[in-house]
Amino acid sequence: QVQLVESGGGWVQPGGSLRLSCAASGRATNTLAMAWFRQAPGKEREFVIAIRRSNSNTYSRDSVKGRFTLSRDNRENTVYLQMNYLQPDDTAVYYCAATTGSPIVSSLGLATTYENWGQGTQVTVSP
Q1: How many other β-carbons are positioned within 10 Å of the β-carbon of residue 113?
Q2: What does pLDDT average to in each consecutive run of 10 residues of the chain (127 residues)?
């Protein structure tokens, strides 16, 4: 249905920045609600940030507010995650997710909301 490919991960020093990309195919991004999740070794997968299909409003976990920004370029069929002031606790595999549905705001942070997932891209933050 929808294929998602993440890129842009890598190593960065604390305080540095990275921009992750999620390219979608099979469905236009303006018809999808999309999100980023992350999973560190030995930890549960956790919600990072999401954007609704109907508008440009984004919703994020408290720990990334003011540091992470999700944007959507519908012409490129790509969403981006700009990550600033990265810290070691941000180290994880980051996954892009999408749904063709129209979830309510309170459901955007639930992994079960999304039926399409990318393969993940590694982000490592260390001195």
Answers
A1: 19
A2: 95 98 92 96 96 87 97 92 98 97 93 97 97
